[in-house]
């Protein structure tokens, strides 16, 4: 005689969604409402926020606070120089494995952090030297004031900004230092400095041709609705460069910091 049948009781955790269920091999949730925060995303968000904030401060300084346009242009070069120092630190402290070889005096050699560091110093230094020549010319042409309040203090803030970013995204608990190689770290700043170098060359051309009533027709038309003070040659050049710089910073920062 067969007894009544009863529905079987599922094993503990069976039938529950695998996502967030450690009994079924799912990835545990960081909280009752979502995934655990990704440290890498936090690092990217911090770097992007610092970059955008810095560019906005520079733009407001020229438009509202009366900062000399030449000072902001010089800060562009200082930022590239600081970025070079930061990159050199990354190159010599990178712990990832590199298979890239460097040719020295016609002989291929295994790339080491020290060798990559020497190569980067000379190569990037050449870029910065050429950049300084054109930036210095434009800064002198539009006017600058080499005082601590208008130039020295912004440089200090710039160094602090990159120190915070590097400590977080490179040396932090989930920093790139442990996974990126010296050769990869060495190549990170080049897209940015190349684009900015082209932008500085464009600014150089605008200064030579004039951006006010004597400048290109399209630029004169574009700046016509602006207040007279904003149509100054230096202000126009800085505004255009900051626009280009912000776009470049957003693209390159996100791409670099998401790399593993």
UniProtKB/TrEMBL annotation:
Xref: InterPro entries: DUF6498
Membrane keyword on record: yes
Residues covered by region (Disordered): 1-20
Transmembrane segments: 44-67, 73-93, 114-142, 148-172, 193-214, 234-252
Species, as recorded: uncultured Friedmanniella sp
Protein name as annotated: Uncharacterized protein
Keyword list, A-Z: Membrane, Transmembrane, Transmembrane helix
């Amino acid at each position: 005689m067969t007894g009544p049948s009863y529905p079987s009781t599922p094993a503990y955790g069976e039938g529950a969604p695998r996502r967030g269920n450690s009994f079924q091999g799912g990835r545990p949730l960081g909280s009752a409402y979502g995934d655990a925060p990704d440290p890498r995303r936090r690092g990217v968000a911090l770097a992007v926020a610092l970059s955008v904030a810095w560019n906005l401060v520079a733009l407001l300084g020229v438009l509202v606070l009366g900062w000399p346009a030449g000072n902001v242009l010089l800060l562009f070069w200082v930022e590239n120089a600081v970025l070079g120092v930061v990159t050199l630190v990354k190159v010599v402290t990178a712990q990832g494995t590199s298979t890239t070889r460097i040719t020295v005096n016609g002989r291929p050699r295994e790339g080491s952090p020290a060798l990559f560091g020497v190569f980067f110093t000379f190569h990037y230094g050449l870029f910065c030297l050429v950049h300084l020549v054109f930036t210095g010319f434009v800064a002198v042409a539009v006017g600058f004031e080499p005082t601590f309040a208008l130039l020295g203090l912004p440089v200090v803030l710039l160094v602090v900004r990159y120190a915070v970013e590097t400590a977080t995204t490179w040396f932090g608990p989930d920093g790139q230092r442990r996974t990126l190689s010296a050769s990869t770290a060495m190549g990170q700043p080049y897209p940015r400095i190349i684009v900015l170098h082209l932008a500085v060359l464009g600014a150089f051309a605008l200064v030579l041709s004039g951006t006010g009533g004597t400048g290109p027709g399209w630029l004169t038309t574009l700046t016509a609705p602006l207040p007279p003070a904003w149509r100054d040659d230096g202000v126009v050049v800085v505004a255009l460069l900051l626009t280009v710089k912000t776009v470049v910073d957003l693209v390159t920062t996100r791409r670099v910091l998401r790399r593993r």
